[in-house]
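Weekly sync notes, structure subgroup
Attendees: PM, AL, DS (notes)

Item 1: joint prediction request from the bench team. They want all four components modeled as one assembly rather than separately. Inputs as received:
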Amino acid sequence: MKDDRLIFLIFTAQNKLRTYLNNALVAANVRVTFVQAGILFLLKQSNVRTMSDLSQLIGVDNSTLTGLVDRLEKAGFVARQASPTDRRSLLIQVTPDGIAEGDKAKMIIKRVNEEIKIGFPPEEMEIFKGILRSFFEKFNKNSGNRNDDV
Amino acid sequence: MKDDRLIFLIFTAQNKLRTYLNNALVAANVRVTFVQAGILFLLKQSNVRTMSDLSQLIGVDNSTLTGLVDRLEKAGFVARQASPTDRRSLLIQVTPDGIAEGDKAKMIIKRVNEEIKIGFPPEEMEIFKGILRSFFEKFNKNSGNRNDDV
DNA sequence: GGCAAACATTTGGCATACTAACTTTTGGTT
DNA sequence: AACCAAAAGTTAGTATGCCAAATGTTTGCC
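Output from the run, pasted for the record:
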């Protein structure tokens, strides 16, 4: 694979991983996806989070989170409640069902996490993670914009 | 970041990269996305490819490719032609406009490719790529299925 | 006290992506 | 020749994701 196909490699590898993971969740009769499970994990840790809190923590746009919470709410795994202190905000709470489903998902996700590491020493995994983490500085919102020369 | 958040790191890093890249393309007045550009590159290399060829080469499902080619065709960058040898197949051809747009995209994509490598020695990039490549074996279609124990 | 700016959330529009189901065609088997 | 399974492509349904715009609320500044 030529060097100028690094981005292609990242995209394709992530596609494979996502499909594999979500299929594994379905096969284990888990009724949430990986991304939805991430929300349930956060809410289990601390059950009072606004939409904005959640979207920042999982790193998606607010508008994406709306849909995620819609689906979780429809399935009975979370509930939206009005914030008593700020009428703009909604507090999202996880239900007992949501906690149970999150726990089921966690087992599968942990397994796949381990599968990623198979065949690679810890030092290599650290390098891998370090490069991925560098994306957060390098590819921050709008920094790709070159409007100045237009 | 704890070890069991490796998947989250991969997902989030890829999201940042994708958003940055597509914003950079828009900022440079490129009218195709990264994924669409990949199709144009392949067709520039060899201008006779079926839908199935393309979907395998860029690593997406046939049904995903249908939409990608729809959008490229609507923009005038590719054309579908009936295959003379197999009436099930379509041959996809890139237009001169498509080649020009692909070339414009390539400049931006190359730049972002280089940006990824900044700050990391080549050996570390090789490790990074090696781990991503391992996903193709580990996470092949359906291998996440554990129906045998259900 | 009033008004503009900032903030929280949703909506609508678009682009990937997958699975499942369907149509048409092909090709091999009997 | 008839049949039937596999292949090529599309469609429909669902799930992320983004951006831009709209709505309602809050806050800070004069």
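Discussion: Confidence is low (pLDDT under 50) at residues 144-150 of chain B.
Action: AL to compare against the crosslinking data before next sync.
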